[in-house]
Amino acid sequence: MARDLEAYLRPEVKSTPFCPGCGHGTLMNLILRAIAELQLNMKDILFVSGIGCAAWIPSPHFNGDTLHTLHGRAIAFATGAKMYNPKLKVIVISGDGDLTSIGGNHLIHAARRNINRTVICANNMIYGMTGGQVASTSPLGALTATTAEGNPYRPFDLCRLVLGAGADYVARYSVTQPLALMAAIKKALNIDTFTFIEALSPCPTQFGRRNQTDSAVQMLKALMQNCVTKEEAAGMDKALLKTKIIIGEFSNE
Amino acid sequence: MSNMQEINSTLTAGSYFFTGNEAAAEGAIAGGCRYYAGYPITPSSEIMERISLRFREVDGVFMQMEDEIASICSVIGASWAGAKAMTATAGPGFSLMQEAIGYGAFTETPLVIVDIQRAGPCTGQATKVGSGDWMQAKWGSHGDYQIIALSPWSVQEMYDQTIHAFNLAEQYRVPVFVMSDEAVGHLRERMDVSPKVRIVNRYKKSGAAPFGTESEDGVPPMPAFGEGESITVTGSTHNEFGVRKTDDPVVQTKLVGRINNKILNKREEIAQSESFFLDDAEVIVIAYGFTARSAFFAVDQLRKAGKKAGLVRLKTIWPFSDRLITELGQRDKKLFVPEMNRGQIFGEIRKYACSEVIPYQQTNGKIIHPKQIMEQIERIL
Lengths: 253, 381
Prior knowledge:
The complex is a heterodimer of chains A (253) and B (381). Chain A has 253 residues and is α/β, with parallel strands linked by helices. Chain A has helices spanning 24-37, 74-84, 96-102, 104-113, 158-164, 178-189, 216-226, 230-234, 238-241, and strands at residues 45-49, 65-68, 89-95, 117-123, 169-174, 194-200, 227-229, 245-250. In chain A, strand 5 (169-174), helix 6 and strand 6 (194-200) form a beta-alpha-beta unit. The radius of gyration of chain A is 17 Å and the shape is globular. In chain B, 38% of the residues lie in helices and 24% in strands. In chain B, strand 17 (334-339), helix 13 and strand 18 form a beta-alpha-beta unit. Classes of the chains: A alpha/beta (253), B alpha/beta (381).
């Protein structure tokens, strides 16, 4: 099965650049499986990414057109390509810092304009590539390279942010829920307006080791414990719910 | 290795009474621009307004973006999707665009930026004229790279040079700037449109390396997204096929060398200028943009009064023609450089001139009047 996806990878680049235990390899796999199951032609797809670990998911590995852009600007580059050539299937894949902090303005405006494209945000809740600094998505109290006494600020709820900006379809799953995550990616790719997928992806190297979840297994287990469905959340104590991440599909309808 | 083509003008041939900004919009359309993204900023906004209307007639794609960074980034995205693409701005917006300009230079993306310069620094005097963006145009993004920057002095040249800018961008795969100013942008005068326009289209070769050539100063062919070439584009150091090579000193040296050499080795071909009354001139004015208009009037008046003044008008500033300045200097004449900045091009001229170079700088938001130039030259003579 794994070798079936080899056709989707650029022949001259084989190995992935991710750390042991990183969730991005799983996400990479799920995106390609979604494309394969939908029988999309890689030659029709433009993958756009910004700067950071997640930006290396498509570039240069995916064997379609890939545009590895500036930090935060992937969505803006994608707008130009999609508007000039609407036949391109445009998929933006990047990290939480890239898409929602430095690139936050482009994200909300893209959701407002509702131009057809799918944005997949690999959220590891930290700046991984630069050495583990606090992000706009780090949990309150998280220990990072720049918050030795714990993150004093609340994180963005990315799905609510993008929904609020007008997106038609938004979903959040963890890489520990591969089938649900892949189903959401497939669904998003089939919608011809702006769609947003938040993929929770563990970063044991930068996040885990500072927050008492050193091993990849521990991080995956913690993610599984912290993710609750909308239905589970409905009956949950509010104080407890604050420590949880609500997963599922979200829409404005 | 690009393709030249003669096409019908998008405007009916004849005379028009345009502002510089309107002429730049028309020049862009005539030059083949079919993607424009911009953000409102004085004194350039009329370009975007005219494009937004006229693109409906020529099937162009217009986007008003959320900021100048998004504008230039979407222009780069559109260029890789096959478009001749442009944005226009003024000082503060030009500052915001600098990182992406470096991306454009490093990924060899053809694009055009029209900068209607205003009095800076910072917000400065938004509606007043200035010419302080020249060094930023050359050095504004980090690292070593080259761009091309043109300096129109009339409404006619706003049209002609914008067409030319697209041709240069396509030929050399480089960002090209039409560095105008508020005075030329808002000047309204007659200009002529000819029935045919010569345009250059980027060179394509299926399967060829899009980021490398055998020669150390070549321009590689450029495919577009969606053509089945599986292009990989990155602002990181890349080999000739676009694959990241971020720890290879040989690849870095080769790429940085080529993106500089492809422009610098052609600088005498790219850099254009125009000379008036040089033969027996004792003082030669070197000017560009709106200031060259004042200088032309001043020199013409002085000649009529029997005074030996001449003028060299720079139509291209970057790449800089050092040979032109060295040759002028060999005549052992005094060079007089009036500018609406604190001597940005004076410094460049002094680098190459063998004779005395006298600066004249004004940064008060007003144009340099011909009378000021006449007074200065008479003092020097």
